[in-house]
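Re-run requested by the PI after the first attempt was lost when the workstation crashed. Everything re-entered from the original request form. Ligand of interest: pyridoxal-5'-phosphate.
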Amino acid sequence: MNADIAARHPGLPEGLTQRRPLLWLNPGYDPQADGRDGRLDPAVAEARFDRCAGLLEQVFPELESAGGRLSSPLTPIPRLRDALAPTSPGLWMLKRDDALPVAGSVKARGGFHEILSLAERIGLEAGVLRDDADRRALAEPPARAVLGRHAVAVGSTGNLGLSIGLIGAGLGLRAVVHMSADAKEWKKQRLRARGIAVVEHAGDYAAAVAAGRAIAQADPWMHFVDDEQSESLFLGYAAAARELQAQLGAAGRPVDAEHPLFVYLPCGVGGAPGGILYGLKRLFGAHVHGFFVEPTGSPCMLVQLACGADRPVSVYDVGLDNRTEADGLAVGQASPLVAPLMASLLSGVFTVGEDTFYADAWRLEDREGIYVEPSAATGLRGPLQVLDTPQGQAYLERHGLAAVMGGATHVIWSTGGSLVPEDIRQGFRQRGRRAAEAA
Ligand SMILES: *Cc1c(COP(=O)(O)O)cnc(C)c1O
């Protein structure tokens, strides 16, 4: 490590600035912390999703079979486990947010929640929705006329824009997505094809967010979905915990001292993984162990927490370049809302190199027939990080888990993929296959 950077940030793990893949254990992790004393209550989002199910069912035909519920399957992936770690103890499962309806990524959870909340507020203030009324009123002509006067804007590397754009347009709101000029072209095309305005900005994701925020602030009819600050997004993600709890129950997987739950969550700005872990900690406390995964070039949450700073520290500050093909995770600065909340709840962060997640995405499709986008394949090595590295084993020893790993459930959160066009998938596959064969 550059001696100067090391001296300024003594908490950074060796090898991080050389982009070496590693597992970092969070020294601030407190098994007793469970977020229950927190001000943010996922029940708010759960109740909103409950009362808006009828509305969503009406607006999105693809949600009809699920009764207006946003949910994704939880599936065992034994063949992938056999490919990566044939003798590893415990059950590996994939949480398939790549298959979430409408928006095709984890961003559906946060994005839909924030826009539903906005639409309810606009409807109530305009007098076209009563507090106790069926939310389907928001799809009736009087409410549509009111909603049509409002716009919603967001800064995004792609998936949040898709989520916000699609739910916004579904409810009749005008949607504007601010993207960095180097965001994936197919994501821009897909947005424009759905009638969503795309504005391109020079610089990275944070620059696009800042530009979008400034434009929206000047327009009283425009609501800005702030990926770096939004409590509403966070709560929408947190509501996923209840869904996972029900699915684990249905699958006969208890979560307790003899049956720990390990969750591996891809992290960009931190809202999605942070919200989900926050929700899970409130349900399972010390029995859930949350690890984030970040690309070796963009480990923003690791940097923020390892520097233990009460001021922002970015990956650029420690000499990294924030360059990664995992565009959903290409974020240089962690959310200032989420990072402090993770300081005691997060067990650790591991980083993954580009060839590894490409190869793992290819292996997942080859073995299990499940296609996910590169960002979503980063978590697939989570169980190996915990079981097969000195840091992981130290964690298991420290928390008295080594003897109970046979009863563990490993949930790898897959975060996006079903909307990726076939020609783009082909390119990802070729690169993944080459990387897997070279490994
Ligand atoms: C956004 C995103 C994430 C991470 O969510 P953050 O809230 O940015 O941390 C992970 N995977 C995919 C595919 C995403 O689009």
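Saved to the shared folder this time. DSSP finds 18 helices and eleven strands in the chain.
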